[in-house]
Amino acid sequence: MTTLSQDELKTLVGQAALKYVVPGEIVGVGTGSTVNKFIDALASIKDQIRGAVSSSVASTERLQALGIRVFDANDVAELAVYIDGADEIDHHGYMIKGGGAALTREKIVAAQSRQFVCIADDSKLVQTLGKYPLPVEVIPMAAQRVMRQFAAMGAQAQLRLRYDSPLVTDNGQYLVDVTGLQISDPLAFESEVNQWPGVVTVGVFALQKAQICLLGTAAGVKTLTF
Ligand code: 5RP
Fold first, then answer.
1. What's the predicted TM-score (pTM) here?
2. Which member of 78, 88, 106, 190 is catalytic?
3. CA of 97 to the centre of ligand 1 (A)
4. Could you read off the pLDDT of 9-68 as tens digits, one per residue?
5. Which of 62, 170, 200, 205 could bond to 137 as cystine, CB 3.0-4.6 Å?
6. What class, spelled out in words, does domain 134-202 have in CATH?
C-alpha cells in the first residue's frame, strides 16, 4: 500500500466532498487547510453552483480568487450542505473546531445547513474529545475570567497570541485555548460553557455535529455516517 502524506489525504477528501454539493444551490464552506483543498476542487464545478456562504475572511478571499461568488449568510435562508474540517471528531460526529480561529462563523453557517459533511484525515478521529486544545472565542474583557473558570475545572487555558499580542478573530474577539479536558458529554459541555458570561462560542460542535465524515485513510476515503 502506498503511504499518502497528510497533504495528499486532505486533497483526497476535499475532492470527495464534491459529491455532496447540490447542483444549482449555494454551498456552505468552512475554513482551514483541508477546506482549502475542497475550495480548489469546487472551482472545477463553479459553473454548476450559485455560489457559497463562507465561514471566514480567508475562505472568502480564496473562493473569490477562484471566481466563486460569496453570499452574505443573512441573504440565504437555508443551505443544503456545509463542508468543513475539524481538529478532532469522535464516533458520534461531535467535533472540536476552531484551530483556524473561525469557530463562531463556522457554527453559524453549520446551523443554517441541513447537512454537515466533515472532511478530515484519519489523525483527527478520536474516542473522546479533548486532547486537541479546545478553542473558545471570548469578548476581550472576559478573557481572564473565562480562563479562571477553566482553571477551576482543573484545565489550563491560555490566550492565543499572534506576534506576541492577543490574536484578534474575524469578529474582533479573543481566543483562549484549553488543555487538560476530557469531554465525555459534548452536548452538556457545549451548553454549559456557552452560558458563561463573555463566551462568544465554544469550539465543541455537538449541537451542530457532523452527519457525515469523509475520512482520509491510507486505504482511501472512508465514509462515516452518524
Ligand atoms: C478552523 C477549523 C478547521 O476546520 C480546523 O482547524 C481543521 O483545520 P485543518 O483542515 O487545517 O486541519 O475549525 O477554525
1. 0.97
2. 106
3. 6
4. 999 999 999 999 999 999 999 999 999 999 999 999 999 999 999 999 999 999 999 999
5. 200
6. alpha beta
If one looks up domain 6-126+207-225 in CATH, what number appears?
Answer: 3.40.50.1360
CA distance 207 to 51: 26
Cα 4 from Cα 156, distance rounded (Å):
35
- Cell representation of residue 43: 472551482
CA distances from 24 to 48, 49, 59, 105, 118 (A): 6, 5, 21, 24, 21
Residue-level pLDDT at 2: 67
Check if 192 is active-site.
no
Question: Which atom of ligand 1 lies at the shortest distance from residue 119's CA?
Answer: 10
- Distance from Cα 14 to the centre of ligand 1, integer Å: 13
Please give all residues whose beta carbon lies within 6 A of any atom in ligand 1, as ranges.
Answer: 30-34, 84-87, 97-103, 106
Phi, psi values for residue 165, rounded to 5°: -120, 160
Distance of alpha carbon 70 from alpha carbon 160, whole angstroms: 29
Position in ligand 1 atom list of the atom nearest CA 102: 14
H and E: helices and strands count for the chain: 6, 16
